[in-house]
Specification:
The complex is a heterodimer of chains A (338) and B (241). Chain A has 338 residues and is α/β, with parallel strands linked by helices. Chain A has helices spanning 56-63, 85-89, 107-117, 124-131, 147-159, 177-192, 204-210, 228-231, 247-254, 277-289, 304-312, 321-327, 329-337; strands spanning 7-8, 11-12, 15-22, 33-40, 45-49, 70-76, 92-95, 165-169, 196-200, 213-218, 221-226, 235-240, 261-265, 268-271, 295-301. In chain A, strand 1 (7-8) and strand 2 form a beta hairpin. Helices cover 77% and strands 0% of the residues of chain B. The chains are: A alpha/beta (338), B mainly alpha (241). The A-B interface holds A 64, 66, 85-86, 89-90, 92, 94, 96, 98-105, 109, 112-114, 116-119, 157, 161 and B 3-4, 7-8, 11, 14-15, 19, 78, 81-83, 85-93, 238-240.
């Protein structure tokens, strides 16, 4: 387990994961999580992102102590969550991705019950419901709520838990814009109050809004981590055009080596270069000379979502590009992942 | 710990008491069976008044349906739906969860007992209560709440519903709840005497008539009352299958 970050001011970190390996039965020995290591510090929001099946939810379940098949080291406030789950449950609030709440309970009963189980002071449930915009739905039963309202209640139940660590698995999925804003505000407020926050999401605007650090997972492994600024620091020129263009010629027009240019998807070109007005002009001139129109040409820092795609969807082989263009994006992705 | 058990039990009880379908099953069906078979002489209930034979059996049936079938179905569906998993992330322990569910079963059975007692009295039932009746009821509640945890620990959702209902029907038919055990063939009688429902019905019939009840019935029910909660806790899991 990590030792350099293990203790801050004598208090163990909210989450320390080291060399986590999770295997499920019937998966041909392919681990769902393969050697993941990261920490969550008090007062910071860490976003765990990755494509479906990347291992995010399994990682969260291991941190909750719900998986007996996990190897490696997981510590929550210095304790093993599998052995000390109940002791830790006083300190955390957790929203799992799947699973509902007792169907017969009203919104008010649900929040009050979970606040009581966590030993929270009276009034906690009412306060959380008010901040989540659910106070008017207090008497509604869970099964009568809309999908977005159920999701907000699920987040509210996590907020009725312990105050030191918040773990949310896709908290803003299916939530409308107003609800999403409320959830993100509450996440930030909880972190500002000193809690560690770990959330998974597929929304990169959520990540940019609240996360101090991002951990990117793909096929069970952590492929990048850092702040949003660090992850998006790379400069590039990107454009979309006819698949199968000559990458060496594109590189030459931009004045970089051929290896700096790739076709990340059929007709989607990326040149890792610090863009100058002259280089962009040279590129468009070359494209014009080839009779090709470039669409969506951007130059500068890589948006977080694009950086994520780069990390989790490696470039296709040059020879595959035209074939994949005919087969469509789904075929291309399937081949890349196989 | 007590606070957590109390919070869950009170919430569950509130839900159970406002659920009309559940109330109909819990209160209506045992009363309907008691009234019907006490007034329409179609069951072999011996030479005395039918209600004298039927009332203790119906009390046993009410305990089975409330503490076992209702709980097994609700646990199975809640677990399959992922609602029980949510409790597993709180400081609530499995023992506390079982205790809260057991407390709700006790209160619901107390309501059933009062309801059935009044109706049976109106039908002419005049029991001569022995204190052993209370012990038999406590052992019965422990047994069947534990059995609900065993069944729901093994299967979720619809399978829990099917298995608990099938078990209920079998126990109802062979345990001397609605007709005398003497009607069963000898080989079957030896087997059914090992069932908790047979022992419970026998003990209630005796203790509601001022007697202690046979030793075999006490030993059988005691063994089940220890075994099923222990096994239920061992099989208990928060997450769905």
């Amino acid at each position: 387990m990590p030792t350099t970050d293990a203790v801050k001011g004598g208090e163990p970190l909210p989450i320390e994961v080291a060399d986590l390996v999770i295997r499920y039965e019937g998966t041909s020995g392919v681990p769902a999580v393969d050697g993941a290591s990261f920490v969550v510090r008090a007062g910071e929001v860490v976003a765990l992102v990755g494509p479906n099946g990347a291992g995010k939810t399994s990682t969260l379940q291991a941190i909750e102590g719900a998986l007996t098949s996990a190897n490696g080291s997981v510590r929550v406030f210095g304790l093993d969550p599998r052995a000390e789950r109940r002791a830790l449950a006083d300190r955390w609030g957790v929203m799992p991705q799947s699973g509902g709440l007792p169907m017969g309970l009203t919104v008010g009963e649900t929040a009050s019950l979970f606040a009581s189980l966590h030993g929270q002071p009276s009034g906690t449930a009412e306060r959380v419901l008010a901040t989540m915009g659910l106070a008017d739905l207090r008497s509604q039963r869970w099964r009568r709520l809309s999908g977005g309202e159920q999701q907000r209640l699920s987040v509210a139940v996590a907020l009725c838990g312990g105050n030191d660590l918040l773990m949310l698995d896709e908290p803003t999925a299916a939530v409308d814009a107003a609800g999403r804003d409320r959830i993100l505000e509450l996440i930030s407020a909880r972190a500002e109050a000193g809690a560690g926050v770990l959330l998974t999401t597929h929304r990169f605007d959520d990540v940019e809004a609240v996360a101090q650090r991002v951990v990117v997972m793909d096929r069970g492994q952590i492929v990048a981590s850092g702040s949003v600024a660090e992850l998006t620091a790379e400069q590039s020129v990107r454009f979309t055009a006819t698949p199968g263009l000559d990458l060496s010629a594109i590189a030459s027009s931009l004045g970089v080596r051929a290896t700096a240019v790739s076709e990340s998807g059929p007709g989607k070109y990326v040149a890792r270069v610090d863009p100058s007005p002259q280089a962009v002009s040279n590129l468009t001139s070359w494209l014009a000379s080839q009779g090709v129109i470039a669409e969506a040409l951007t130059a500068g820092r890589v948006p977080l979502e694009q950086r994520f795609r780069d990390l989790t969807m490696p470039p296709v082989d040059e020879g595959d590009a035209s074939e994949e263009a005919a087969g469509g994006e789904r075929t291309a992705r399937r081949r890349r992942r196989s | 710990m007590i606070e957590r058990v109390r919070a869950l039990a009170l919430t569950d009880l509130r839900v159970a008491l406002r659920d009309n379908e559940q109330l109909l099953l819990t209160l209506g069906i045992p009363v309907a069976l008691l009234v019907f078979f006490s007034t329409v002489d179609v069951l072999p209930t011996g030479t005395g008044e039918p209600v004298d034979y039927l009332a203790p059996g119906i009390v046993a049936l009410a305990l089975l349906s409330g503490a076992f079938v209702r709980l097994a179905i609700s646990l199975g569906f809640d677990r399959g739906f992922g609602a029980i998993k949510r409790f597993g992330i709180t400081p609530l322990g499995p023992g506390e969860f079982l205790a809260a569910k057991g407390l709700v079963a006790v209160v619901l059975f107390a309501v059933q007992l009062v309801f059935l007692g009044v109706v049976a009295a109106l039908l002419g039932w005049r029991p001569s209560l022995h204190i052993g009746a209370l012990a038999a009821i406590v052992l019965g509640l422990l047994t069947f709440v534990g059995l609900a945890f065993v069944v729901s620990g093994l299967v979720d959702g619809l399978r829990s519903l099917a298995i608990s209902n099938a078990l209920f029907i079998v126990l109802l038919l062979v345990s001397g709840i609605v007709f005398e055990l003497d009607r069963l063939p000898g080989w079957l009688l030896a087997v059914v005497k090992l069932l908790p429902s047979t022992a419970l019905a026998e003990l209630l019939r005796n203790t509601f008539d001022g007697a202690v009840g046979p030793r075999w019935a006490w030993l059988t029910l005691l063994a089940w009352a220890v075994a099923t909660p222990a096994l239920g806790l061992k099989l208990f899991r928060w997450s769905p299958n």
